[in-house]
Structure formats: C-alpha cells, structure tokens
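Writing this down once: the sequence line spells out the residues, with the fold written below as integer tokens. This is how one looks:
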Amino acid sequence: MTQGAITAMWRALAALLLAWAMPAALACERTVRWNPDPPFTLLNAAGEVVGIDADIAREALQRMGCTVRWIELPWARALLELEAGRLDVLPGAFKRPEREVYAWFSDPRPTARNLLFASQEALAKWPLKRMDELPRVGFRLGVQINVAYGKAYDELLKDEAYARSITRQSTRLNLWQMVASGRLDGVIASEDTAAIELAELKLDQRIRATAIVVSDDAARFAFSKRAVEESFVQRFNQALAQMRREGLIRRIQQRYAPPQD
C-alpha cells in the first residue's frame, strides 16, 4: 500500500470517528432551569448564568461530557416543564413524594436555610418564635407559587382558613415590595438569597430575618424522568462526589455566599 493510500485511509477513518462522535455530543446537551435567584443562579456582568447551583451543574455536566443550555423559567412553570420532559434539570428542588412521580433527585447540594422574614413593624408587634403562631396573630404571609418550604410550612397549611389567607406570587420581588408597602407582614425565603435581594432593593433595614427557621432541608438537582435515565443521575452524583473531594463545591459556595454577621 502506498503512502498516499495509507494517508487517505487514515483521513477516512478520522472522518468516520468524527461523524460518530458528533451526534453523541449533541445528544448530551442538557437543558437546565435558571431564574434570578442569587446566590444560586444569576447573570454576571457578561450576561452569563452563574451562581452556586449554576456553577455546580455546569461543572458536573461538563465532567460527564455534556453541554448546558440554560432556560429561564419561573419556579411553577419549571416544575411543569420538568414533568412534561421539556426541561432536563431543575436545580434547588426539595425531594417531595409528589415530585418523585416525575423526577429523579441528585444527592444533596449545599444547604441554605429558609427563614421567615418580616417588616420592622411586624417584628416590633409580634416577637414570633414558631410558625404555628402566625394564624393566631393574623400574620399576613407571602410565599412563592408551588415552592416547598418544609415540614413547618406544611403543618401551617393544615389550618385551611389561614392557608387561604396566604398570598402567593410567582416572584419574591413582588413579595418584598408588598411587605415594603405594608400589604404583607412577611415572606419565607432562603437566608442567603434574601440577604442579597434585600440589600439590592435597599430594604435590608426595613425587612429583617425573624428567629424562625422554617426549614433547613437539603435541596437537590431534580431530573425529568421523561428526559433522563436514572443511570445519568448516578453519573451526576459521582461527579458531585468527586467535586466535593476536591473541595470545589465548597469553593463555589464561598464564591457567591454573602458573609455572615
């Protein structure tokens, strides 16, 4: 065989391997939900999606040979898209029985507590210490639509009259503004997220954290059962475990989490 024939053969083989590899790479593109939710997902100055959840998801998926396509969605819509299989990955989800019907769940990611935040007026009026005190004093509570806040909030919802009085909005921005205008007494939110958002809105002196820890459950990455095989989630967990051993997840968390007083 001549040198030219050998060269042509290798070129043909390389083209064949490239054609085989390209569809696999394209098939591994995963859609991941984001929404302005600092420090977990946000846009940086360059317009890139970053944050604790964003950086962890991007790094883990890249280690699996996958690319990320970010989709901006409010929380309630994201759950519907995940269930329908039109969204692959939903970061920051609590593992709940009703969600396990349509979603796989990763190992836990760094925990952020949900606290009850209240206006200074409400704090002065009611030195609240437990969630079950809210109905008794007529506390006007605001929450996000279809967000899970843990067992204490679930118990609160068993009071049907009070549950009907709770204001539900698609974004926390609306809720913070309602507290600032005196239409609500308080909001449940992640302590890290609230610290950032209230400072940006210049409301951090008017709306403060109460002593009530609503939940400290570990959030996870949820994967659509319609779009993702369980084995894919197992590989994702392996990537997370490796990132933990390297100290990378802690460094990512420290990159975005605000300093604690």
User: Anything to note?
Assistant: The chain has two domains: 3-105+219-256, 114-215. Residues 3-27 form the longest helix (25 residues). The two ends are 75 Å apart (CA to CA). The CA atoms of residues 86 and 227 lie 8 Å apart.
